[in-house]
Every structure is written in C-alpha cells, then in structure tokens.
Amino acid sequence: MADELKDVVLKYVIAEYSEEGSDPISFDTPLISGGIVDSFSMVSLKRFLENKYKISIPDDQATPEAFDTVDKIAVLVRRFTQA
pLDDT tens, 2-45? Predict the structure, then answer.
C-alpha cells in the first residue's frame, strides 16, 4: 500500500538535500545522524511540513531523533494531523 506522506517527505528530502553522486535515500536512511540534513536544514524541513500539512510541530518535539528518518518524520507528522 502506498504511503503518500512518506513519498512526499522523501521527495522533498531528495530534492533539497541529496547531492549528485550520493547514496540513494530511502525511508529508513539516517538523515540527521547520517549527515544528510543538518540542524539548519531540519528547521526548513519542519517549516515545509507545517505548511504542507497545516500543522504546528512544537519545538520540543522537533528533535534530531524525530527527524532522523523519513519513517520517523511520518510518525511525527501523523501525530499532529490526526489531532
């Protein structure tokens, strides 16, 4: 079954943070701990998600751990879209 949310996040991450010739990025690729997304980029990603899904992610929940993979980001976003 397709997961549109994960696909949207993955597509955004690849477009914004993947470099030519770098390893492919998948749903479970470590983004923060793998050095693909830094803390400044994480803020941009958070802002993208908030605008795209009309949610507000509290700063205390926008942790590097919560943004470390597309799978974890999808869990975080779902928590706020289902509220």
Answer: 599 999 999 999 999 998 888 899 999 999 999 999 989 999 99
Nearest to 49 by CA among 72, 29, 18, 32: 72
Over residues 42-61, the pLDDT tens digits come to 999 999 999 999 999 999 99
Q: How far apart are CA 46 and CA 75, in angstroms?
A: 13
Contact between 64 and 32 under an 8 Å Cβ cutoff? The reply is: yes
CA distances from 36 to 15, 82, 83 (A): 12, 28, 30
Rounded to whole angstroms, how far apart are CA atoms 10 and 65? Answer: 17
